[in-house]
């Protein structure tokens, strides 16, 4: 048993047309989901513009709903969960009906405008030789939703048996139908993987591979792929001399590439020789096996090929590709104009190295500490209670005091005019006390807000607060966020290079959107309009300036120059014409 979480858009605006385009089997879109494009915006040829419908198309797919399949209610549980046979697909939902499930989910999601993407979709799949019963499948669905904290959330589950593997699609609403709070799906992949291991044990499914495994005692552990340990000499060199060994260099440079080639069935003798050559390494037969050596020091130390990666041992390569083949020439002497194979890196034994095992242990320790930190935060959120200022009781106390004063006046004062005057004094004292109480409550609420006690802290604010207290895991989490921001900044700099030519305009001018069929127009959150060609920015309109990014090739530069002129004319016309 395993789980699949289909990828979604990162801007939290899931396009269901794209979400189900690779799995949808419907022949046409529903009329209620088609919209008209605004004037001046033309979709690419052969495409239809479809609005993001919420849960409609996803529910249609998981229920295999095409034209109008007949639905038949099979059973209804006391909790209101009903099973519906939609054509040949057996579905289960806790909504009022399968036909209204999408509308109910959309209406519930609209109650939480802060949740930009309320759809959650995952798939539970079983091995080919397994045929679980519907009761077992739907029990797995309910257990998975409960583990995700979505026990009471709306969902639609459908069993599909039209492939080699029996699988079940689950589309759930992240927004709670009663409290209208959006469920946090942090670490959902690990949660679902743990659910699979527990269900395999409880319901008797076959154990499948995953990121977590269960030992004989029922404890869950993260799965680690087995690789041969470092040779003793290489480990001693790196530990005692702080110098990188040939083994460590070879593992760092070629192990991942060899693993990827094995998965893609591209590993053979010429490919392996070329990969090693580009890293300054060679492969030869030695002592009845294969050895990896340094091309610049062939008489020096060598490393067993099986220690670098088990797939390039002599028996494994012989079984895969036949007998040993020598390295091919790096260039063709008869065609020198074709060039030669380049060497991009080489082994330098004088370089310092950090112990990889220690780094791995520290990384695992940080991961465990952050999991504990997240659990502490969830416990804080679950146990948080809003400070009770006793507002109603304090106002009632003032009102009661006024009532007592009036009763005392009524018993002691006999003159009607004087009694009426004393009543007015009591009312005045009551109004004065209530006004003072309102000012006091305002100050108390302001103090709670300044102290961050008026509402539960967010994940980031809570981590910052724990870091100020000296929590090691919180400090590690803050450093991790900082490193992530730096990586994103580098990636953004690579994706959006600095313009080579800039045209300046008056500050404060708005940037109108210029749309043609020749390029892709992208509007950013800050109002910047970028015109992309082949997925890369060519001309960017910032409002007060227009920048052009240089590209290789004279024809492209001519086209970009024309684009800059067209954008400039469009700006001068104010976006008209």
TrEMBL record:
Domain of life: Bacteria
One Pfam assignment: TraI_middle
Residue stretches making up the MobA/VirD2-like nuclease domain: 90-204
InterPro entries to which the protein is assigned, alphabetical: Endonuclease_MobA/VirD2, TraI/MobA_relaxases, TraI_M
Signal peptide residues on this chain, from the entry's feature table: none
Positions of the TraI-like middle domain: 234-326
Listed transmembrane segments: none
Protein name: Relaxase/mobilization protein
Chain's gene name: mobA
């Amino acid at each position: 048993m395993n789980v699949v979480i289909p990828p979604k858009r990162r801007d939290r605006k899931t396009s269901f047309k794209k979400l189900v385009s690779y799995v949808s089997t419907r022949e046409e879109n529903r009329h209620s989901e088609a919209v008209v494009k605004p004037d001046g915006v033309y979709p690419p040829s052969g495409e239809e513009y479809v609005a993001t419908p919420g849960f409609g198309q996803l529910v249609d797919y998981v229920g295999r709903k095409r034209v109008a399949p007949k639905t038949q209610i099979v059973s209804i549980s006391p909790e209101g969960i009903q099973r519906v046979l939609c054509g040949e697909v057996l579905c289960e939902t806790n909504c009022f009906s399968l036909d209204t499930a999408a509308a109910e989910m959309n209406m519930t999601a609209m109650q939480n405008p802060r949740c930009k993407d309320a759809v959650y979709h995952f798939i539970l799949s079983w091995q080919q030789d397994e045929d679980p019963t519907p009761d077992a499948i739907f029990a797995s669905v309910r257990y998975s939703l409960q583990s995700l904290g979505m026990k009471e959330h709306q969902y639609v589950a459908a069993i599909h048996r039209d492939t080699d593997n029996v699988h079940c699609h689950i589309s759930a609403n992240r927004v709670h139908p009663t409290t209208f709070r959006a469920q946090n799906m942090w670490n959902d992949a690990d949660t679902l993987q743990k659910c699979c291991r527990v269900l395999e044990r409880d319901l008797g499914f076959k154990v499948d591979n995953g990121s977590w495994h269960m030992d004989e005692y029922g404890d869950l552990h993260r799965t680690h792929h087995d690789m041969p340990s470092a040779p003793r000499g290489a480990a001693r060199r790196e530990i005692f001399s702080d110098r990188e060994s040939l083994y460590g260099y070879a593992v760092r440079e070629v192990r991942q590439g060899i693993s990827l080639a094995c998965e893609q069935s591209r590993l053979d003798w010429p490919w392996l020789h070329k990969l090693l050559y580009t890293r300054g390494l060679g492969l030869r037969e030695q002592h009845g096996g294969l050895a990896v050596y340094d091309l610049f020091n062939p008489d020096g130390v060598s490393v067993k090929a099986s220690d670098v990666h088990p797939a390039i041992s002599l028996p494994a390569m012989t079984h895969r590709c036949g007998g040993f083949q020598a390295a091919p020439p790096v260039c063709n002497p008869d065609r020198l104009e074709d060039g030669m194979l380049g060497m991009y890196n080489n082994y330098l034994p004088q370089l310092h190295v950090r112990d990889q095992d220690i780094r791995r242990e520290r990384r695992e320790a940080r991961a465990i500490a952050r999991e504990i930190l997240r659990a502490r935060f969830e416990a804080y959120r679950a146990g948080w209670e809003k400070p009770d200022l006793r507002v109603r009781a304090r106002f009632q106390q003032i009102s009661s005091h006024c009532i007592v004063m009036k009763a005392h006046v009524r018993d002691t004062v006999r003159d009607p005019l004087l009694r009426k005057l004393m009543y007015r004094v009591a009312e005045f004292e009551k109004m004065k006390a209530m006004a003072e109480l309102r000012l006091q409550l305002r100050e108390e609420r302001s103090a709670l807000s300044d102290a961050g006690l008026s509402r539960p802290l967010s994940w980031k604010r809570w981590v910052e607060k724990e870091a100020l207290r000296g929590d090691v895991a919180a400090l590690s989490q803050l450093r991790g966020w900082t490193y992530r921001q730096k990586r994103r900044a580098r990636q953004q700099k690579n994706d959006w290079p600095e313009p080579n030519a800039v045209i300046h305009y008056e500050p404060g001018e708005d940037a109108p959107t210029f749309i043609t069929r020749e390029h892709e127009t992208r509007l950013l959150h800050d109002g910047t309009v970028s015109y992309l060609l082949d997925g890369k920015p060519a001309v960017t309109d910032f409002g007060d300036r227009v920048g052009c990014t240089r590209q290789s090739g004279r024809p492209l530069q001519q086209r970009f120059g024309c684009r800059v002129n067209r954008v400039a004319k469009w700006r001068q016309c104010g976006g008209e014409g």
